[in-house]
Design goal:
22% of the residues lie in helices and 25% in strands. It is of the alpha+beta class. The chain folds into two domains: 148 residues, no CATH class; 83 residues.
């Protein structure tokens, strides 16, 4: 099997060759893939990004990254690699993916971390739409499915893993109706069991054999829970050190590190 030759996602290495606008949100998925614009075009390399908009919906966005004859998505989706017989060293200079990544770096995201797209998951930022630059060879087709604007990050509110730690609010039975208290306990138990499953699964993977830092845990759990109705509660729960340190957990918590029990 041929070895995948990685290419750079640093915008400085770029080579010539429901839309998000004026909203705050958290990136819950960020991966290299291919996309055909709903069958209107041939498959082409793209970054798939999902943003959980604050006080709104979840938005899925595809950012074109170039041509398959030059680059291919890595099998794990963590970035792009050279296509067979290609000499590509970076993404296309005018590709939407490059423009987005450049805005990310300009807003303060470390370019080095773009070597693995998983590092972007969990980032909270302000997203804006900017005009897409003219590109030679692309006609202004009214039926063109590709957006004429490209999403950019104008400001980063918090990096993955950052954020103020919060404690779970526990029910106060004296002041609450008994039925409501029982319902709250059941919901909390459901989230707790769900989160325990996410963390156990992560610890089984080769990437986290030595453990997971508490700083990285919220972003990792958010990625695991991106399709769950409990994703917000799950992220809040893993920032509760009392919950993490409970002896009933199927993992160990010590010195800001989560390890297998």
């Amino acid at each position: 099997m041929a070895r995948e030759e990685s290419i750079s996602s640093n915008p400085a290495d770029a080579e010539v060759g429901g839309f998000l606008d004026d909203v705050d949100g958290t990136i819950t998925a960020f991966e290299a893939t291919t996309f055909d614009y709903d069958g209107k075009y041939d498959e082409s390399p793209a970054i798939r990004m999902v943003v959980d908009v604050d006080d709104g919906d979840e938005v899925e966005q595809y950012l074109s990254a170039g041509q398959l004859k030059r680059i291919r998505p890595k099998k794990d989706g963590s970035g792009f690699c050279r296509a067979p017989n290609s000499r590509a060293k970076g993404l296309g200079a005018t590709a939407n993916a490059t423009l987005f990544l450049a805005s990310l770096v300009n807003a303060g995201f470390p370019a080095k971390k773009l070597e693995d797209y998983d590092n972007v998951v969990g980032l909270n930022a302000h997203f804006v739409a900017v005009p897409q630059p003219k590109r030679s060879g692309l006609a202004d087709d009214e039926d063109d499915a590709r957006p004429r604007s490209v999403v950019n990050v104008s400001e980063i509110h918090s990096m993955p893993g950052e954020g103020k730690k919060t404690k779970r609010k526990r029910p106060r039975p004296v002041e609450e109706d008994e039925d409501e208290t029982e319902a709250g306990d059941e919901a909390s138990d459901e989230v707790s069991e769900e989160v325990e499953g996410y963390i156990t699964t992560l610890l089984k993977g080769s990437k986290h054999r030595k453990g997971i830092s508490v700083e990285d845990l919220p972003a990792l759990v958010l990625q695991q829970a991106r399709k769950s109705k409990n994703k917000r509660a799950a992220v809040e729960m893993v920032q509760d050190e009392d919950w993490l340190g409970d002896d009933a957990r199927p993992f160990s918590f010590d010195d800001d590190l989560i390890t297998k029990a």
